[in-house]
Amino acid sequence: MATTVSVAELTPDQRETWSTMLSDSIGSSIYAQPDYLDILCRATGGRYQLMGVWRGRELIGGLPAYRESHPAGERVTNRLLLYYHSIVLRQYASKYPSEVTSRHLAALSALQDWLQADSAADVILHNRHEIVDLRPFIVTGWEVRPSYSYLWECHNMTSSWEQIEQNQRRLIKRGDREQLRLVEDKNIEAFWRLHWETHRRKGAPLYLEEQPFRRYIDDIIRARLGHLWLATTADDHVVAGQLTLLGTSPIAHTVVAAADSDYLQSGATPWLRWQSLRRLHDLGYRGTDLTDAALNPVTRFKSQLGGRLVMNSVVRRPQSSAMRRYESRMRWRGRVAGLVRRLRGDRRG
């Protein structure tokens, strides 16, 4: 008789079982670690459930289901500072690909059934590129679309340097000549100012308001789940910064980056990226996920660093009627706002 595959929320005393599974799973990252999710939820007010897929008494996969309130109802989804909201699946050592596929499909089907029945108004997964087989979601009408990111590898630093475009290498060397310094895990206040300036200059989203933002970074540093790396001038002026999450995965994740607009031509940003990659190499990491590769100037910069483009996947359950009504209202308000702006422009003309 076949062993039953089921989905159940893990109890607090099973967190260690979950963490052990992550070390031997595909799709795993720091975003699936309970200690990281605890810090994130303190900053955002969200909550999460560790939903395990069990084959009998064996934990074979699952989803760290992150939940936030929304005008249309609760959402199960990713967000800023939770770039991946990914399924994780235990790896199997088998010479038969069909056996591995069968076990993964059973886990995926069980998760799809559980998520389909969930009462949330919206369900969105953002799976890492290792999760390839999404047929149980496709055949049941879920929307599946690609999402891209860059992986910048650091296991061979000579090769990593050679893959950086010449212009970026020139800027990194300029940073050396300018005697920039790498500062670690200090001056969160200065980093917030850079983040705010980038938001104001580019219209980029604020990841959190100031106090939750600073508390989140402080919690990450205290828990040793990441590093805040800053580039400073010789007189200690902070000119660029980035937050990189570490965790137990061999791939780190660069999640927030910002720079002083007066130093954009100084080479500070590529210099800092390169110095952080060297630090990751020294810490034993294989590389860092540069987070998102939508077509824009920032993505072009990431590609010039020599990162490898990978295709992740966004999976969305058919929307509830409440979510469809909400998004329809938002589109209508957007069209009205656009019309008002055009009318005001005509009057000024």
Protein described:
The protein is an alpha+beta fold. It folds into two domains: 5-142 and 317-336, Aminopeptidase (3-Layer(aba) Sandwich), CATH 3.40.630; 150-311, Aminopeptidase (3-Layer(aba) Sandwich), CATH 3.40.630. 41% of the residues lie in helices and 26% in strands. It is built from eleven helices and 14 strands. It has helices at residues 15-22, 34-44, 97-117, 135-138, 157-162, 166-177, 188-202, 210-222, 268-283, 297-304, 321-348; strands at residues 5-9, 25-26, 47-55, 58-68, 75-76, 88-90, 122-127, 143-153, 181-184, 226-232, 238-245, 251-259, 287-289, 308-316. Strand 3 (47-55) and strand 4 form a beta hairpin. Helix 2 runs antiparallel to helix 8 (210-222) and helix 6 (166-177) crosses helix 9 (268-283). It is globular and about 65 Å long. The model has no long low-confidence stretch (mean pLDDT 93).
Q: What is the percentage of strand-forming residues?
A: 25-35%
Whole-number tally of structural domains: 2
Rg estimate, integer Å: 22 Å
Biggest sheet architecture: 14 strands, mixed
Seen as an oligomer or otherwise, the chain set is: single chain
The fold-level CATH name of the largest domain is: Aminopeptidase
End-to-end separation in angstroms reads: 78 Å
Number of strands: 14
Question: What is the CATH-assigned architecture of the largest domain?
Answer: 3-Layer(aba) Sandwich
Low-confidence stretches: none
